[in-house]
Design goal:
Layout: E1 4-8, H1 17-32, E2 36-39, H2 45-55, E3 61-66, H3 67-70, E4 81-85, H4 88-98, E5 102-104, H5 109-123, E6 131-134, H6 141-152, H7 158-161, E7 164-167, H8 170-178
Parallel strand pairs: 1-2, 1-5, 2-3, 3-4, 5-6, 6-7
């Protein structure tokens, strides 16, 4: 059962208004489904938009923000809860503790770093939570091609590649996450398996 989801996304809006629209709609949908939001705690960009989508529709939004970013006055002031931590690593650890899965929206380096850390933890068996991409307007198409290259070149097992749930529609993405079953796969590939 999914009670809360962590959402990783950009602190910018991007160049296409569809990113902001979908971020707000995802927040609204989470509130409608009574699924709490756990996210980076910022009021800026898609981060602020998804929090607004949750809060303006009666949902729960928990922000996790390092102290050094709070000093830059980017903290969202209207959240259910804002938890301040010391480091970026502590932020991700707290997000993982509080949530039952992860969705990545469009974003930059930080979004990818957070996504890949959660994917790596899943691959290593540290959690069995669903991890998903909301592939708005094909934003992540090239990343998905790269993951296929990793499989083809023998650096990623296909079963581990399939751990990543991908959809471009909010409702079907959430349904896939609710029905997710983690694969039983060893991370390391022997030379005989390549």
């Amino acid at each position: 059962m999914i009670k809360r989801l962590t959402v990783f996304c950009g602190s910018s809006f991007g160049t296409d208004s569809i990113y902001e629209e979908q971020a707000y709609l995802l927040g609204k949908r989470l509130a409608d489904e009574q699924i709490g939001l756990v996210y980076g705690g910022s009021k800026t960009g898609l981060m602020g938009t998804i929090a607004n989508g949750v809060m303006e529709n009666g949902g729960e939004a928990i922000g996790i923000l390092p102290h050094f970013l709070q000093g830059k006055e980017i903290a969202h002031k209207s959240l259910t809860d804002l938890i301040l931590v010391e480091t970026m690593h502590e932020r991700k650890t707290k997000m993982n503790e509080l949530s039952d899965g992860v969705i990545a929206l469009p974003g930059g380096y930080g979004t990818l770093e957070e996504l890949f850390e959660m994917m790596t933890w899943a691959q290593l068996g540290l959690h069995q939570k669903p991890i998903a991409l909301l592939n708005i307007n094909g934003f992540y198409d090239d990343l998905l091609k790269m993951s296929q290259t990793m499989v083809e070149k023998g650096f990623l097992k296909e079963a581990n590649q399939k751990m990543l749930i991908v959809d471009d529609q909010i409702d079907s993405l959430l349904n896939k996450m609710k029905n997710y079953q983690a694969p039983k796969v060893e991370k390391w590939i022997s030379k005989d398996e390549v």
